[in-house]
């Protein structure tokens, strides 16, 4: 084989190698990430059309930012932290690589003790940690009619759990910027309307991106 032909073949092989490497890199970057959102009626988009709820809005915003993420809507209306704990295994059937835990509102509405909520959320967070699933914990606030002491104890559950788990991304209040605004909520003044759900998603986005960046490379794809 002549030197010129051998050099040409080597150059072609080198070019193919670069192309294959680039293809593998592109495939890795575009692999879909599954993000679980375990919650109650807020997550489930109560009173909203399909595609208007927080999971759909979060997914749309992430895709606009070039992140190939599918948000798994695991919201069940009326669910308490006990309900979320009982169905965690079911929610993990789709093998999510990251999770948002957005429960607690119904515990307050039903006047359940913060101690019960702490036990349930601890079990949920421990279950996710045992599977090496990066997690975002979204806090909630108790209605003022339950009293200042209950409100303090309720809020402390979320802050204490987050402080004890530095690996967990903490978003202090799920409805930040939306709660209490009639223009952003439905007539019940509890559940966000379409605009409220959009604002909720926009506000959570930086924390969610921090969460996604914590997914181990070995778990992506």
Cα(first) to Cα(last) distance is 44 Å
Strand content: 5-15%
Largest sheet: 5 strands, parallel
| Helix-strand category | alpha/beta
Q: State the CATH topology of the largest domain.
A: Rossmann fold
H/E element order? HEHHEHHEHHEHEH
CATH architecture of the largest domain: 3-Layer(aba) Sandwich
Low-confidence stretches: 12-29
Averaged pLDDT, please? Answer: 90
Number of helices: 9
What does this structure look like?
Residues 38-199 form the SGNH hydrolase-type esterase domain. This is Arylesterase. InterPro entries: Ester_Hydrolysis_Enzymes (IPR051532), SGNH_hydro (IPR013830). It contains nine helices and five strands, in the order αβααβααβααβαβα. By secondary structure, the chain is of the alpha/beta class. The chain folds into two domains: 1-31; 32-216, SGNH hydrolase (Rossmann fold), CATH 3.40.50.1110. It has a five-stranded parallel beta sheet with strand order 2-1-3-4-5, with helices on both faces. Helix 3 packs across helix 9 (194-212) and helix 7 runs parallel beside helix 8. The longest helix is centred in the N-terminal third of the chain and has 28 residues, at 3-30. 34% of the residues are buried.
Keywords:
9 helices; Ester_Hydrolysis_Enzymes; 2 domains; 221 residues; 5-stranded parallel β-sheet; Arylesterase; 12% strand; SGNH_hydro
Show the helix and strand layout:
Layout: H1 3-30, E1 33-39, H2 41-44, H3 54-64, E2 69-75, H4 81-86, H5 88-91, E3 98-102, H6 105-109, H7 114-130, E4 135-138, H8 148-164, E5 169-171, H9 194-212
Parallel strand pairs: 1-2, 1-3, 3-4, 4-5
Helix pairs in contact: 3-9, 7-8
């Amino acid at each position: 084989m002549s030197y010129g032909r051998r050099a040409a073949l080597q150059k072609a092989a080198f070019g193919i190698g670069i192309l294959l490497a680039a293809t593998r890199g592109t495939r890795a970057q575009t692999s879909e990430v599954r993000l679980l959102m375990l919650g109650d009626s807020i997550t489930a988009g109560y009173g909203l059309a399909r595609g208007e709820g927080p999971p759909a809005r979060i997914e749309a915003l992430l895709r606009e930012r070039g992140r190939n993420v599918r948000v798994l809507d695991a919201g069940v209306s009326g669910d308490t932290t006990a309900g979320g704990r009982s169905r965690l295994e079911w929610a993990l059937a789709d093998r999510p690589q990251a999770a948002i835990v957005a429960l607690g509102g119904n515990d307050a509405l039903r006047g359940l003790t913060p101690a019960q909520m702490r036990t349930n959320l601890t079990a949920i967070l421990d279950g996710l940690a045992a599977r090496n699933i990066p997690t975002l914990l979204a806090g909630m606030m108790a209605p003022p009619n339950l009293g200042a002491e209950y409100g303090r104890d309720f809020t402390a559950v979320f802050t204490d759990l987050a402080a004890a788990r530095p690996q967990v991304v903490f978003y202090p209040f799920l409805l930040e910027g939306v709660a209490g605004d009639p223009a952003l909520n439905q007539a019940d003044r509890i559940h966000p309307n379409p605009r409220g759900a959009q604002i909720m998603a926009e506000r959570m986005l930086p924390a969610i991106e921090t969460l996604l960046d914590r997914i181990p490379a070995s778990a992506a794809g």
